[in-house]
Amino acid sequence: MHREHGELRARVRSSAVIQNPALFEAIGIAPAAAMAVSLKSAIMLAAVSGAELLLIEMFACLALKRLKSYFRVPIYALFGMLINIPFFLFFEHFTPNETNSAGIFLPLLAVNSLIALHCERFAVKNSAKNTCIDALSAAAGYAVVVLAVGLVREILGSGTVYSVSLHLPVQLPGFLLPFGGLLLLGFFAAALKAVIARRYPNAHPEAAFSLEEVSQSHIGRLKTLLDAEFDPYDEGTQASERSKKPGARPERPKKHTRQKAAKIEPHLAEETQSPTQQTKNMNREKRESYLLDFDEMLTELDAYKLAQEKSEAAPPAEASDEETPSSAKDAGGERADVEKPETAKNAEQGQAKEESGV
After folding, report:
1. Are residues 302 and 358 in the same domain?
2. Shared-domain flag, residues 111 and 7
């Protein structure tokens, strides 16, 4: 008995608090931001959403388990419209102002994503009892958030509670706009996350968004597509239709089919490898290519170093050849400078002899 109560309490806590539809799953936040501007409109939103969630989830659990998902989702929308119509007429008669202010968002609750998610994730996979508990707890968690948002926005934006004035000195009408609702939802979500981290540290609500089943289903579909023969022009169907015609000649069997199959078998073995093995092979090939490129770079660097060392060790032959003419010119200039004083001396001696003879 105590164990059953513990399981029930854990299930309610998970659906209403830890995996709150509005604050954790972010479902139904558009109606909450647009409609929940007062306590009356919040009550209207919570009542319609809770009734639709409970009735549609129970109907999906009892009658729609054998249908495919793409057939079930339109049925959710149709059934939601049937539930929404009497609620809309009721609220239009008793609260016409709130119904008019809700606008199109009240009829749009018939296609609320909250209903489709809980029906597909829980209702079609569990019993009626567990489905009823999930629907009631999720509806209660969503209603608490919507009522809190509507109450705070009415107090801050209008200065009233259930249309009763509080005579507040300051009002913030910006909270009556959609961004005010989204701002409050963000603060409430942060507060809920802090509470969950403190009181339930072992809870992992993000596990509800595990895509393992979806990925496995897609992998299975890809495998079936790869195993099927690629026939984009429907040649196989055309051949079968021609063979069915009266008087059609039977097609000749192809030759060398065994040899071709034997040649193709290794390639098929490579294509039918597991994704993990293919990833390992790709990583191995990349690593080998990187190593080859690195070896080539090292080889080029060594060759460049050797060329530099040879060029530095070799004598500068061209420079020596260029320097020889200049050195010869310098030597010739010095000889000319040396020879010039001797000729000058000989000329002076000759002039002196001539003068003495005269």
Report:
1. no
2. yes
- Distance of alpha carbon 180 from alpha carbon 29, whole angstroms: 12
**In-domain check, residue 238:** no
Amino acid in position 109 = L
Count of alpha carbons within 13 angstroms of residue 309, beta-carbon side: 6
List Cα–Cα distances, 115 to 15, 27, 51, 60, 147, in angstroms. 13, 9, 10, 10, 19
Structure-token pair, residue 286: 């990349």
Bridge partner residues of 164 (DSSP): 161
Total H helices, total E strands in the chain: 14, 2
pLDDT tens for each residue of 11-59:
888 888 888 999 988 888 998 998 899 999 999 999 999 999 999 999 9
Q: Which two tokens stand for residue 341?
A: 């004083």
Is 135 in contact with 118 (CB distance < 8 Å)? yes
CB 68 within 8 A of CB 81: no
- Specify if 262 maps to a domain: no
Whole-number Å distance between alpha carbons of 162 and 95:
12
Catalogue the long-range contacts made by 215-220 (C-beta closer than 8 Å, 24 or more residues apart).
Answer: 219/275
**How far is residue 59 CA from its own chain's centroid?**
34
Cβ contacts of residue 120 below 8 Å, gap of 6+?
A: 69, 72, 73
Q: Which amino acid is at 132?
A: C
Q: Is residue 191 domain-shared with residue 327, that is, in the same domain?
A: no
pLDDT tens per residue across span 74-103? 999 999 999 999 999 999 888 888 888 888
**Residue 312 structural domain:** 277-316
Distance CA 242, CA 250 (A): 9
Half-sphere exposure of 212 (CA within 13 A, CB side): 4
Final residue belonging to a domain, choices 205, 225, 257: 205
Question: Does the pTM of the predicted model rise above 0.70?
Answer: no
